[in-house]
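Discussion board: Methods & Data

I've been asked by a reviewer to show the raw model output for two of the constructs in my manuscript, not just the figures. I'm not sure how much to include, so I'm pasting the format here to get opinions. Each protein appears as its amino acid sequence followed by a line of discrete structure tokens. Is this the kind of thing reviewers expect to see in a supplement, or should I convert it first? Here is construct A:
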Amino acid sequence: MLIRGTSLIEKGKQVQDQDILIEENRIVEIGPDLKGDDEIIDARRMLAIPGLANCHTHLAMTLFRGYADDMELMPWLEEKIWPLEAKLTAEDIHWGVKLGCLEQIRSGITCYNDMYYFMDETAKATKEMGLRAVLSGVIFDMQPQLLDDVEPFIKRWKGDELITPAVGPHAVYTCSEETLLKSLDIAEKYDVMLHIHLSETKGEVESFTKEHGKSPVEFLDSIGFLSERVTAAHCVWLSSRDIKILAERKVNVAHCSISNQKLASGIAPLDQLQKAGANICLGTDGASSNNSLNLFQEMKTATIAQKCAHSRPNLFKAEEIWKMGTTNGYKALGFDIGLRKGALADLVLIDLGKPWFCPISNVLSHLIYSMSGGVDTTIVNGKILMKGGVIPGEEEILENAQERFLDLVSR
């Protein structure tokens, strides 16, 4: 495959008239006037970017979009989300995941990190859609059988071209020390990632600290849980000591700005995390609390919230936020992605002929602050998932997802 005449971003600047040669699932060359005998994509007036990384989500919760708005986290979970989740079937998950993949493909997201139920169904649906994913079945003490499913799932999927299995203990307030240590043992045994919610709300942190005499971060550190294999979602309510620990242990922090603000959970101390050297990446969380799976929106909201919270308009410039949505995310998930020779061919073409890109003065700024659509082509693992805004099978997915939602809420 040869992508002809595209623009790229190099060191924050737009470079025009570049070709990208893809063979099998890798980028083999980037430069002007390349030769290729395979399929040619005319990308003049387009911008090529590496696919975005959504580092925390619950993809099948697209079926809950708009179902439980304007509530605080715990009432939202206990009164709305958990009762509905108890009714979920594998068929629901299948179409919820496909709907989520559809939205991510349209939003330029090529890889994602998911924690939820029915992970085999999630993996199958994701592969059918062609996206790359790290997947972990959620683990709760209140459903002890879920822990028994973790190792078989890892064995079934480890080594797959697109699916990377992981271990997903939900949080310190839903998992005992014993469960957390079992999760850690499995992750170390199979050398896979750990995915956990951490210090999301003030009430959660205060309650846990009062009971245990340690913050959630301090507690996890005391049992040897924290390392670079951990991606911790949210991390909103952190002490200076918590921040130091997360940075020293090289924990990946998945920041979910829109979800955290919509649930009024708070604004994470990204400036302090960045100063400490933590790897900050971005996640959308589920569409039940966001309510979309759009990392461009996430990038804009993240930087604006930080500027406002600290009264510093120069905080978190476009280049820094862009890195969180791309490079930092690939690091967290362990994927060799980027617009460079030898990298996995996971990339996106954006139509620059849209009003929000005009005038083309600072294209990276436009991506962060004014992007309102225009993803034209999405390629993952060297395969075209969307071209010219067309995704095969989209209508069927939308129809089935709507049917599953109506059936689910009527049970």
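Construct B, same format:
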Amino acid sequence: MNRLADLTRIGLRWDPSGLAGLTGPLLAVADDLDLAFRRLAGRWRAVEERYPAALPAPPLADHLRCFPHQVTFPVALDPADDNLGEFADGPVVGADGRVALTRTAPVTAVLTPAACYHVYAGHRGERLTGARYLTTRNTCFRRETRYLALRRQWSFAMREIVCLGTPDEAASFLAVARADVDQLAALIDLPLAWTPATDPFFRPADNPGYLLQRIAPTKYEATYDGRLAVGSANLHHDHFGTAFDIERDGRPATSACVAFGIERWLYALTDRHGTDPAGWPDLPAAATRVVAGWPR
């Protein structure tokens, strides 16, 4: 039996357009993964926050310039009766699967590209007197040239832990978070290695952000078996602190985040331990062991 058939048997509902649903054992272990990551967030007493699946476009102008090839926009029809009538009376969906859009309303939002973006917007204008730690999960959207079940998807779940603070607080957060992820991975027998990485910029050679990441790495990916990035640790310096007017002791806050791709962790776990749930590690228990070793 091939891999996709094995995953389907345990709960994957895959559409080749890059969309995945989860049921049964696969959904259960996805929930266990998220619980494990939330337990890791407990080291910093990170506050849970919930956000919608889209953000207003204006604060993301820089992101849109850097990653236009990956962005997905929520589009609605112009609400004029004649336009809606033209759409309803037309083919609606063509034989090739394309929606036969008529005139569209102005696009003012972006479907979430990364869960942490909501956090910076949600804390706009704050004046911090101490480091702030937050965690959030969202459905994220990134267009790709090809899609692979659980590995490369248009829509996927991302859990993040975010630090807003001084440069030293952000650097300490990333170092400790990476060590915790390493310990969790060791306890569940999942070979991971942190490797320097760059974001997939559009026209990278012309983008200062790409050049900066090459010269002074600010992004490291947790890579499974040397071939699949399942998470990342990211230092943003004061980019978001400046953009969203967040200050720490009178200066633009430095931000850092650790991100976990839920579906990619599912792929790595089932690749390493097989598709029989009886052979899967107890993820929340492993995270609890990491927590038990923390200094008090």
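Answer (T.O., handling editor elsewhere):
This is acceptable in a supplement if you add a one-line summary per construct. For B, something like: Residues 167-187 form the longest helix (21 residues).
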